[in-house]
Automatic annotation (TrEMBL), chain A:
GO cellular component: cytosol; protein-DNA complex
Keyword Phosphoprotein in annotation: yes
A molecular-function term among this protein's GO annotations: transcription cis-regulatory region binding
Protein name in the entry: DNA-binding response regulator MtrA
TrEMBL record, chain B:
Cross-referenced NCBIfam families: MtrAB_MtrB
Residue numbers spanned by region Disordered: 502-521
Enzyme class per UniProt: transferase
Membrane topology, record value: Multi-pass membrane protein
Catalytic activity entry: ATP + protein L-histidine = ADP + protein N-phospho-L-histidine
Listed CDD domains: HAMP (cd06225), HATPase (cd00075), HisKA (cd00082)
Alphabetical keyword list: ATP-binding, Cell membrane, Kinase, Membrane, Nucleotide-binding, Phosphoprotein, Transferase, Transmembrane, Transmembrane helix, Two-component regulatory system
Pfam families: HAMP (PF00672), HATPase_c (PF02518), HisKA (PF00512)
Gene Ontology annotations for the cellular component aspect, listed alphabetically: plasma membrane
Matching InterPro entries: HAMP_dom (IPR003660), HATPase_C_sf (IPR036890), HATPase_dom (IPR003594), His_kinase_dom (IPR005467), HisK_dim/P_dom (IPR003661), HisK_dim/P_sf (IPR036097), HssS/ArlS-like (IPR050398), MtrAB_MtrB (IPR047669)
Name of the protein in question: Sensor histidine kinase MtrB
Length: 222, 521
């Protein structure tokens, strides 16, 4: 079955056009024209990924993003026209996995979607890092027997770091391995998601023990 | 001291007042001293002459009444003259000499009686000659008297009065009375000292008064200057205190009025400008959503162009190209609006300029190949390190290169990199159509094109150089241009090695500069 993509955008033409592009690339689109209906449409359509416009009438994209994140870890990609404002950071902090700047090309859109839908693969079945045990097959993280719920992206980020403990990953390396960017992208993606990940796995996110910052270079596990 | 005068109105005013009143006081003191001296002298002279006349008559009468013939008696009378004359008179400072007129044939043996301690040399021969021929009149002459006071020679003014005296038997004599004016001199000196001390005190008082008064007058001006300074620094709502009805209050009121109107104008202009900036930014953003749709649609059509008939296929290609151009234009507009809004921050890091130049050339290479332009590069061997925003500088260089390719008529393009102690520089030189003076002046203007009728092949937006200039200024650098019609153009970017440092000369020269290091415009 083809993956279902929920397109939340108030612009009718763009919404339809994105639908055409998605259909042409083998996805099944679902639509929602405003922020107020986004959550109910999300629940009823049960998509595999959400394309979410930041500027929406009614509830804005950032609020919608938070609502969806509260009940689901599925990939969310924000669509934004303003890269210089706080929108991007706010969207990422609200739980969006990635963002695309308008105007974008069809290939860029489908590449970003495919990168987010790509299954997480690993040569090993499970990885242990500090007090955490990552069950790669079951997509689960156990901390002292307790399950921690991570989004697929957070799981992938942690797995990437944990598979090579002590190795320092630069932000650019992580952008390539986790987000699938092969060119220079926004390092804020990494910063924000490391913060989100820490808030879920660390005892004290301000004094991280599992995912450590290597000043001036990047991050390292353990 | 000189600097203080130049800086401080108050110091100048006080100095001028003191100097002028000093000159006036000196003149006044001089005049007073002179006329007091004159007055003292004349009063004393009058008294001396009166005394002398009566003394001469007295002496003459004494001799006339004596009718002595013998020498001894005569000498006794003569000798009595001097002490007698010394004793009379108001002042005790007179001395007397009864001198025999030279060439007389009377009794030679008679001694000339002279007051003790009197040097007859002070009575000049010329004066004596005058006295001899004075026909009985009393004559006087001012002289200098020397006296010993506490072992030191003291000079004092004096007057010698002389008159011929007829002495029976002995013949013609001259009677001289010498008056010392030391006490008058002392009085005069005392008056002069008093004048000097009083004058000095007066100058100090005048200086003090001038200081206080000018300070009082200058203070409001100082305050006004400080407030102007504050307003110039952006504190538009600072005002002067309006108090009273005098000229200073008028100054304060007009100053405040001016500040009010300035503030209104600035606020109005700022809001208009802000609205415009907002408008440009909003338009650019609002256009992005429809542009996304157009782009997606255009791309789908472009991808399937092979299945369309030739005119539709060409249309799809044109559409695709123009959508791209539209997007670049929109991005440039946004970038400019960010600069206008002052919302641009450079991401400064230490980079190797050689590397950034290499990246820019690599990314422009397809266009250069398409236009058959050959790019030659002249780089220093070592890394050329400087602090800058690599993304912006690469974009800037790409833009300079694209311009050089577009206007270079496929002739070689030369890129140079250089550095000196304070700055790094890149120059991009083409040998193409160049520009004339009028074109040069407008080259950084927004949407300005060297030749509006020219075919636009590289899809420039007309904002490229305007953005390049903004990028340069953001780095505290300089973007200089040289061009000549038919000879080509040279753009030179100079950046400080360390942000915030002042750059006085560029490491590279423009084609019209002969010196080793180029001047910055």
């Amino acid at each position: 079955m083809s993956p279902k993509i929920l397109v939340v955008d108030d612009d009718n033409a763009l919404r339809e056009m994105v639908g055409i592009v998605l259909t042409a690339s083998g996805f099944t689109p679902a639509y929602c024209p405003d922020g107020d209906q986004a959550l109910s449409t999300f629940k009823s359509s049960n998509p595999d990924l959400v394309l979410l416009d930041v500027m929406l009438p009614g509830k804005d994209g950032i609020a919608v993003c938070k609502e969806i994140r509260a009940i689901s870890g599925i990939p969310i990609i924000m669509l934004t026209a303003r890269t210089e404002t706080q929108d991007v950071v706010l969207g990422l902090e609200a739980g969006a996995d990635d963002y695309i700047v308008k105007p974008f090309e069809p290939s860029e859109l489908t590449a970003r979607i495919k990168a987010r839908l790509r299954p997480i693969t690993s040569s090993v079945d499970s990885v242990t890092i500090g007090p955490l045990t990552l069950d790669v097959v079951g997509h689960q993280v156990l901390k002292e027997g307790r399950q921690i719920s991570l989004t697929p992206l957070e799981f992938n980020l942690l797995l990437t770091l944990a598979q090579k403990p002590k190795q320092v990953f630069t932000r650019e390396m992580l952008l390539e391995k986790v987000w699938g960017y092969h060119y220079k992208a926004d390092t804020r993606l990494v910063n924000v998601h490391v913060q989100r990940l820490r808030s879920k796995i660390e005892e004290d996110p301000d004094d991280p023990k599992i995912v450590a910052t290597v000043r001036g270079i990047g991050y390292r596990a353990g | 001291m000189f600097g203080l005068f130049r800086r401080s109105v108050q110091a100048r005013a006080v100095a001028t007042t003191v100097a002028l009143s000093g000159v006036l006081l000196v003149a006044l003191g001089g005049f007073l001293s002179f006329s007091i001296g004159q007055g003292l002298f004349e009063a004393r002279l009058k008294q001396i002459l009166a005394e002398s006349e009566s003394a001469v008559i007295d002496v003459q009468n004494t001799f006339a009444a004596s009718s002595v013939n013998d020498e001894v008696a005569l000498q006794t009378i003569m000798n009595s003259v001097v002490p007698k004359l010394e004793a009379t008179g108001v002042a005790d400072s007179r001395r007397v000499a009864l001198l025999r007129t030279p060439g007389e044939v009377g009794l030679q043996l008679l001694q000339s009686p002279i007051s003790a301690g009197l040097d007859t040399q002070i009575i000049s021969q010329a004066f004596r000659a005058e006295v001899r021929t004075s026909a009985g009149r009393v004559l006087y002459q001012s002289i200098q008297l020397e006296s010993l006071v506490d072992g030191a020679v003291r000079l004092s003014p004096g007057i010698v009065v002389g008159s011929p005296v007829e002495i029976p038997v002995a013949g013609k004599y001259e009677l001289y009375l010498i008056f010392d004016l030391a006490s008058e001199q002392q009085t005069l000196e005392f008056v002069q000292q008093t004048l000097v001390v009083g004058g000095l005190a007066l100058i100090f008082i005048i200086g003090g008064v001038a200081y206080i008064v000018t300070g009082w007058l200058v203070r409001p001006v100082k305050v006004a200057a400080e407030v102007s300074e504050e307003i110039a620094d952006g504190a538009l709502d600072v005002r002067l205190l309006e108090k009273g009805e005098d000229v200073i209050a008028v100054l304060a009121r007009s100053f405040n009025k001016m500040a009010d109107s300035l503030q209104q104008q600035i606020t109005k202009l700022a809001s208009v400008s802000k609205m415009q900036q907002r408008f440009v930014s909003d338009v650019s953003h609002e256009l992005r959503t429809p542009l996304t749709t157009i782009k997606l649609a255009g791309d789908l059509i472009f991808e399937s162009r092979e299945s369309l008939d030739p005119s539709l296929k060409r249309s799809a290609e044109l559409l695709n190209g123009q959508i791209e151009r539209f997007e670049i234009l929109l991005n440039d507009l946004l970038e400019i609006s960010r600069y206008d809004a002052g919302a641009v921050r450079a991401e400064l890091e230490i980079h190797d300029l050689n590397q950034v130049v290499g990246m820019a050339i690599a990314s422009i290479d397809p266009l250069a190949k398409k236009r058959d332009s050959q790019i030659t590069v002249e780089l220093p061997e070592d890394d050329v390190l400087a602090e800058f925003d690599a993304r912006r500088i690469e974009r800037l260089l790409r833009n300079l290169l694209a311009n050089a390719i577009e206007h270079g008529e496929s002739k070689p393009i030369h890129v140079r990199v250089g550095e000196n102690t304070e700055a790094v520089a890149v120059s991009v030189t083409d040998s193409g159509v160049g520009m004339n003076k009028a074109q040069l002046e407008r080259v950084f203007d927004r949407f300005w094109r060297a030749d509006p009728a020219r075919k636009r092949t590289s899809g420039g937006t007309g904002l490229g150089l305007a953005i390049s200039l903004e990028d340069t200024l953001l780095h505290g650098g300089a973007l200089d241009v040289w061009a000549r019609p038919g000879e080509g153009a040279c753009f030179r970017l100079t950046l400080p090695k360390v942000q915030g440092a002042e750059v006085t000369s560029s490491p590279l020269t423009l084609p019209n500069q002969s010196s080793e290091s180029g001047d910055l415009s």
